[in-house]
Specification:
Length: about 150
């Protein structure tokens, strides 16, 4: 069960919004299915925990899906309100900042955010991208960050 749930969470993360919606739909299908199995198909001595389990699994799917949907929305809102962010298209300025930023710093190839200071973030603090986030801890890595900002 635990593996199933963590696999589902990975699926939702990988699928983004579509994955979250799929999980909601799956959950909405499983809840009445479990109830139906429990109420009509389960005779005396039937294994009713399994029937209820289907409903609970459905609830879990729905919860995970909604969590992913609204979780993302909340993070998006936070990013919008963050202030000090630069427009996604303004990569020329971002490259300039990456050229002059003091090591260590982090740069985001997805939104062009450049942050000086310790690489305290495991993802872009502006757009929360993980694959786009480049941490520069020595001068040799500066070129990698600049080239990611194009
Ligand atoms: Zn970013």
């Amino acid at each position: 069960m635990g593996e199933l749930v963590s696999g589902l969470i990975d699926l939702i993360r990988a699928g983004g919004k579509a994955g979250a919606v799929s999980a909601c739909v799956l959950g909405l299908l499983l809840i009445p299915l479990g109830y139906f199995l429990f109420a009509y198909a389960a005779g005396p001595g039937a294994v009713w925990p399994i029937m209820l389990g289907v409903s609970i699994l459905g609830l879990g799917c729905l919860g995970l899906g909604l969590g992913a949907l609204f979780g993302n929305q909340a993070r998006l809102d936070a990013a919008m309100d963050g202030g000090g962010t630069i427009a996604r298209a303004n990569f020329a300025e971002a490259r300039l900042r990456a050229e002059t930023a003091k090591v260590p710093f982090g740069a985001c190839g997805d939104c062009g955010h450049v942050v000086e200071g310790g690489p305290a973030y495991d993802r872009c603090p502006n757009c929360f991208s993980v694959p786009g986030w480049v941490i520069v801890e020595n001068e040799d890595e500066r070129g990698r960050a600049i080239s990611s900002l194009s």
